[in-house]
Amino acid sequence: MAIADSLYEKLTNQEDARVCEDISEQACRETPRSFVLILLSSFLTKVGDAVASPKTTLAWVTTVVGAPEFVLGLLVPLRESGSLIPQLFIGGMIRRLAVRKWIWMLGSVLQSVAILGIGAVVLLMEGRTAGYAILGLVIAFSLARGFCSVAYKDVLGKTVPKKKRGQLTGWSASAAGIVTVAVGIMLILPKEAGNGAAVYGFLLIAAAGLWLIAAAVYARIPEYPGATGGARSAMEALSRLRILVNDKPFRRFVITRALFMCSALSAPFYVALAQGRLGSPEYLLGAFVAASGAASLVSAPFWGRFADRSSKRVMIAAALVTAGIGITVFLVDRFAAPLAGSIWFLPLAYLVLAVAHSGVRVGRKTYVVDLATGNQRTDYVAISNSVIGVLLLIAGSVGALVPIIGNSGVIALLALMGLAGAFLGMTLPDAQS
């Protein structure tokens, strides 16, 4: 307990670890322990995410096993939307539970099983069969992740006070950044030929164990019973969508968050633009992965502290950075081709984008948790994530414009989307007030 108190105080700059107003007195006394346990479990799963990323490792292994090309294009949309869309119904189920950490644990165990399965596929299968198996396991992983997403925000809201949630999210993302940098360095370093499938297969199997350890850590969080009740069937869950009509601040947040998808959707086009300019050497992919990790490592704690003061302003600032770097990349690509083709420009631009995306993630996660309390928080998280999941599949089709306007044109279009989100974000209420 003394270790948790000390670590909590150092990470949050809080000498009095018992100052909290929006959680129960019991939970308040346990805040340092809850903070540290949630931080550790989140770090472990983020390490697993870095190793099993659909943008790097999973994309690589689909090529190694000779899966059809369409499998590569489906990895990221299925991974993201599969965890978001069902949350409307998952939220209705979770509302009946007074203690919700067990749902997070179940989701973590199921994610472990899915990644273990992908590792086995890489070792034992090839071709189209391997591709279909990987897609099926990615869907299973994504659905399990949906349970964790809803339960995590509920447990966080019940165990950690408002002014500390953004910092927890920020420190977790920063720690994950260290691992992502390491993954990038691994991609940059030369590799021995002929052992790709075995190396990545065993790497994924090892990563699967991280979710199991995280589940064991999460079980120790001192979560006390909270509010219950709400939707108990699919139709009742769908009826909760009326919140989007009746709750103006929440509706505006969902629309704003949809526009903020630009930071995530832009990333692949930066990589594709660099490949078009420089080819596809492994060191280039490693540079982008390392840039992403460095961005989280350096910026997430800053964004976290900023979010505890005003998560609304964090989202606005991050969206403006996204728009600014996107427009800059477009102009450089169109009017300064030698600079765009330099070995450093696009990885550096991607680093700026990754910093902005980290801010968007920390800001919107903190905002939605602080905007509501109790079961209303469950509704907000589940409904917003389900709606964003559907919109993500739709917005993901922006890639079809590449033959017409090019990669830099798509980046510029998404930058304008971020600019619109920043202006709309200015009309949101301040969740910390």
Structure write-up:
There is one protein chain. The protein is mostly helical and 433 residues long. It contains 19 helices and no strands. 80% of the residues lie in helices and 0% in strands. The two termini are 31 Å apart.
Blueprint of the fold:
Elements: H1 2-12, H2 25-29, H3 31-51, H4 57-64, H5 69-84, H6 87-94, H7 101-124, H8 127-159, H9 162-188, H10 196-218, H11 234-239, H12 243-246, H13 248-259, H14 262-278, H15 282-335, H16 337-340, H17 345-371, H18 374-395, H19 402-425
Task: Jot down its keywords.
433 residues, single chain, mainly alpha, Growth Hormone, Chain: A
Give the strand content: under 5%
In the CATH hierarchy, what is the architecture at level 2?
Answer: Up-down Bundle
Number of helices: 19
Assigned CATH superfamily: MFS general substrate transporter like domains
Which of globular, elongated, flat, extended, rod-shaped describes the shape? globular
Separation of the first and last Cα atoms: 31 Å
